[in-house]
Amino acid sequence: MSTTIEAAASENGKKKRMKADLVVIGAGSGGLSAAAGSAMLGLKVVLFEKGEMGGDCLNYGCVPSKALIAAARQAQAFRDADKYGLTSADPGVDWTRVKAHVKSAIATIEPNDSVERFEGLGVTVIREAARFVTEHVVASDTVQVDAKRIVIATGSRALVPPIEGLGSVSFHTNETIFDLEELPEHLLVLGGGPIGIEMAQAFRRLGSKVTVVERARALDRADPEHAQIALDSLREEGVTLLERTSANAVSQTAEGIRIEVQNSDGEISAVIGSHLLVATGRAPVLDGLALEAGGVDFDHKGIETKPNLRSTSNGRVWALGDVAGRGQFTHLAGWHASVFVRNALFKSATRADSLPTPAVTYISPEIAQVGVMEAEARKEYGDKVSVSAFHFAENDRAIAEKKTKGGVKIVTLKNGTVLGVSIVGEGAGDIIQLAGFAMSNGMKIKALTNFISPYPTRTEVLKRAASKWYEPLVFGKKAKFMVKILQSIA
Ligand SMILES: Cc1cc2nc3c(=O)[nH]c(=O)nc-3n(C[C@H](O)[C@H](O)[C@H](O)COP(=O)(O)OP(=O)(O)OC[C@H]3O[C@@H](n4cnc5c(N)ncnc54)[C@H](O)[C@@H]3O)c2cc1C
Ligand SMILES: NC(=O)c1ccc[n+]([C@@H]2O[C@H](COP(=O)([O-])OP(=O)(O)OC[C@H]3O[C@@H](n4cnc5c(N)ncnc54)[C@H](O)[C@@H]3O)[C@@H](O)[C@H]2O)c1
């Protein structure tokens, strides 16, 4: 709680009453962006945060995971040195110093999300849990605010599956994995989604033995062929990846944590490890908000909202980020804040789904995608869909750097409308930006050919794949016939 509010509240011995144009509940990626934008536009904003400023992304998500992945990448470079005529070495991993590196990344970014910065923008920050009192009143233990509008941006938390015995062992989630006392000797990972797979490769590269138990297909939202290329790399690096394998029961034994697993043929076996990370999905944080008192409808995915993120049941209320149940990314939460500002403050009619949301999984090789993938496109549009592909094996920069795994796939309609793009390979998350830009601005595949791409860059693969789309047109019968006529004139 900020000191001014604390003093006023304890002086009165009762809740301090305030009025505000906007109350924001949750100071994560979505809430902070909405609070900053609204305060900068002159609104009186009160922001409640019950935990750490910056939410999951800064403290327990994107930032620590990407810092850990960076350390792991450096470790791997030692092992790969031989490819470049250098002497490979086994990296000495000092876990305490790796953790210090992770903490220093958080500490460097922290000031952007701090109470001081937000108070400087004119936001009243209250470090307490908030709940609805009525449809327009929100309260914490010491403050009660009557608000014209209320943003719920309370995020999500790890969903712990109901597996027999899981509650009786000491397991980790994203909230504790970055604070481990020691580097795990053998990390068991339950769940092969982005969290499980990113952490599996990072810990393996840092020296842990790693086993992933995934009940379906790992990275199942990615293009299957591209996911396979990335997952094969993890396997080559020594990650044991058990797909289509369910966990029947978990127990603590003298040897370590034991998971009884069952594969799709019904065969039962066991894996034993020193530590367990549960990464089996996320649940919206709704508890303690007293949503009934606020007349706010919700379901298991989060707050029920209209396409513009406004609550379906209380017009003063908006939901942003993970709690809106429309995807779980920091950049999506930031876009949601923009949708809120456009609709609520500028009265525009922007839908949350009006731009395609890119997704990147930060493994090596990286996987990035935007729009719909081939299988989904074919389900909807049948044989109107075509796919243009190009591989890093034919990209000169990739060859020079000996990082030739993967490639790009552009999924289009016959008229050149780009439905989606998938890239697997080094730097995929940077290359996808160009595709997202073109799609977001209604450009067709022609736009991805109509620029000069610097040589030698990995991004050239996107232009080469787009150019392939034109091959039948440019080098087809019609074009040949036209050139013949023109040549005869000359
Ligand atoms: C390990 C991991 C890695 C990730 N990596 C990436 C990545 O690389 N890229 C990416 O785009 N996304 C990534 N994500 C997802 C990303 O972290 C989330 O999508 C993002 O943080 C969502 O922001 P948010 O504002 O919706 O919620 P959060 O950041 O979770 O913020 C919600 C805040 O609300 C507070 N709160 C909750 N209830 C109350 C209450 N009643 N009163 C007051 N405060 C309350 C919470 O304490 C929290 O601080 C990752 C997630 C994890 C777990
Ligand atoms: N790079 C990024 O942008 C990034 C990184 C990490 C997380 N995130 C976000 O956070 C979200 C949550 O990540 P996540 O990986 O926890 O969830 P997820 O829902 O994406 O994946 C969970 C996986 O666990 C599996 N699973 C569920 N129950 C299981 C069980 N009992 N036994 C075995 N497997 C089981 C599922 O089949 C699924 O593959 C992501 O979807 C993503 O939006 C993003």
TrEMBL record:
Print the keywords alphabetically. Disulfide bond, FAD, Flavoprotein, Membrane, NADP, Oxidoreductase, Redox-active center, Transmembrane, Transmembrane helix
Q: Keyword check for Cell membrane, yes or no.
A: no
Q: Which domain of life is it from?
A: Bacteria
- Gene3D superfamilies from the entry? 3.30.390.30, FAD/NAD(P)-binding domain
Which parts of the sequence belong to the FAD/NAD(P)-binding domain?
A: 21-336
Domain Pyridine nucleotide-disulphide oxidoreductase dimerisation spans what residues?
Answer: 357-465
A matching Pfam family: Pyr_redox_dim
The catalytic activity of this protein is classed by the Enzyme Commission as 1.-.-.-
| Top-level enzyme category | oxidoreductase
Tell me, what is one Gene Ontology molecular-function annotation carried by this entry?
Answer: oxidoreductase activity
Matching InterPro entries: FAD/NAD-bd_sf, FAD/NAD-binding_dom, FAD/NAD-linked_Rdtase_dimer_sf, Pyr_nuc-diS_OxRdtase, Pyr_nucl-diS_OxRdtase_dimer, Pyr_OxRdtase_I_AS
Which residue ranges does UniProt annotate as crossing the membrane? Answer: 22-43
- Give yes or no: UniProt keyword Flavoprotein: yes
Necessary cofactors: FAD
Give the record's family classification. Belongs to the class-I pyridine nucleotide-disulfide oxidoreductase family.
What is the recorded name of this protein? Dihydrolipoyl dehydrogenase family protein
Organism this protein belongs to: Hirschia litorea
Show the taxonomic lineage: Bacteria, Pseudomonadati, Pseudomonadota, Alphaproteobacteria, Hyphomonadales
